[in-house]
Structures are given as structure tokens and as C-alpha cells.
Amino acid sequence: MFGCQDDKILVSLVTKKKKVVLVLSTVYDTNTVDEDTGKPVQNMEYNCTNGGVDTVDLMCSRITTSRRTQRWPMNIFFRLLDISGINSFRIFQMNNPLDKSIRRTYIYDLSLELMKENLRERAELRNLPKDLSIFLEPYREHPANQLPVGAQPNQRAICHICGSKKNHRTQLACKDCGKYVCKNHCTVTCNNCQESPDEGSNMDMD
Questions:
Q1: pTM of whole model > 0.85?
Q2: Residues 23 and 73 in one domain
Q3: Last residue of some domain: 114, 129, 155?
Q4: Which residue in 34, 90, 105, 106 is deepest, having the highest Cβ count within 10 Å?
Q5: In DSSP terms, which residues pair with 13 in a beta bridge?
Q6: Same domain membership, residue 57 and residue 31
Q7: Is 18 within the bounds of a domain?
């Protein structure tokens, strides 16, 4: 059976008993049937070109963003993410034929690029676990000679290298990152040695 509307056609084909195949096509809008097989041309075209669908399914199964969930909209969302990643990687390969990046590396870099704004906002939080704080360090912006967020002049805080276990409190802060450091984890250089680094040397603060 054929159902036509404007430039598209819906084909209903019964291949076996109680098994109906529905094909919607915008390429062939005629009710033509192949003489050798007795199948509509829409069905024949699908059988010839469905290799791309199998290839996409294989690529999605190897590298996927899908997670176990009981919500079917999330399954569709994960599937759209996988297909979008494959399509964007193909566009990237077409625009950069000399680049030899693999899809796994490309997807990882793409995900970090999409999350960059969110990572920058989260990096400013002060109550993050230490492993997350280290991971977000490249996304944290600290102008030179700026104290950490919420710090006051002459305020004492725990050295971020020693951690809370040793409880080494200090008023010294790194001029580059603004984090507090104790005297055991910093060095001091006088003005003369800083102007002539070849003649002077750094010495630890005791």
C-alpha cells in the first residue's frame, strides 16, 4: 500500500505473516514496484543504503556518551549526542585532511571545550575536594598579587600544599596563584639577586 502527500510517500509492505514494514521516502514519490523481487523501489533503496546505519550503530557502541537510565527521553538525548559527535568529527576531518586525530581524542577535547564556561565558574568555588581543585586549576583565573577569594590583609590560612592534616597556618600568599603557602614551601629572593640572577641565588625561608 502507498500513501502519498506532496513530495513524500509512505509505503506499507507485508513481508511475512503479521510483519509489516513501513518506509517513508522523500526521494521516490512514485508507486513503482521492482519486477524481479516484487518490492517497492523505496524498500529496495533502503536495503542498498542501510550500511551507513549499521556503521553508525557500530561507532556509537565503541565510543558512547550513553549512561544507564530508566527514562527514555535521556536515551534519545544520549543517542543524539553520539550521532552529533560522529557528524562533527567527519566535518572536522573534511576541513582538516592533514590532521590525524582519532575520534576518542576529538570527542574528549570537544567535551572539554563545550564545558569550559561551566568549568571556569566551578573553579571559583572554595569548598571543592582536593582532586577536583587540582583538575580545575587551569580554568581558575588569578591576577598577579591578588589574594584568594574572601581573603583579607594579614589573614592567616592553612598552607594549600601541607593540607589540613598538618594545619600549618600562614600569612604568606603566592604572588602568581594567590594561594596561601607556609615558609617550608616557598622561597625568597632579595632585590639585588633578582636584578642579577647570575650572581645571586635563592634561599629558603627559615
A1: no
A2: no
A3: 114
A4: 106
A5: 21
A6: no
A7: yes
Q: Is residue 129 part of a domain?
A: no
Same domain for 32 and 69?
Answer: no
Selection from 129, 131, 124 nearest residue 146 by Cα = 124
Q: In sequence order, which residues have a C-beta less than 8 Å from that of residue 170 and are 6 or more positions away?
A: 156, 157, 158, 159, 180, 181, 182, 183
Q: Which of 188, 180, 192 is nearest to 205 (CA)?
A: 188
Q: Which residues contact 161 (CB under 8 A, 6 or more apart)?
A: 181, 182, 185
Does residue 125 form part of some domain? Answer: no
- Would you state the cell numbers that stand for residue 68, as one nine-digit string? 544507564
Nearest to 83 by CA among 51, 118, 56: 56
The DSSP output letter for 173 is: B
Mean pLDDT, all residues of the chain:
78
Residues 62 and 110 in one domain: yes
* 23: enclosing H helix or E strand: strand 19-25
What is the band of 149 on the pLDDT scale with cuts at 50, 70, 90?
very low
Instruction: Judge whether 138 lies within some domain.
Output: no
Write down the pLDDT at residue 143.
55
Q: Which cell is 30 given?
A: 512514485
Which residue in this structure is represented by grid cell 572536522? 92
Structural domain containing residue 177: 145-206
Q: Is 12 helix (H, G, I), strand (E, B) or coil?
A: strand
Are 94 and 124 in contact by the 8 Å Cβ rule? The answer is no
Do residues 166 and 201 both lie within one domain?
Answer: yes
Asked whether 15 and 21 are in contact (CB, 8 A), the reply is: yes
Domain count, the chain: 3
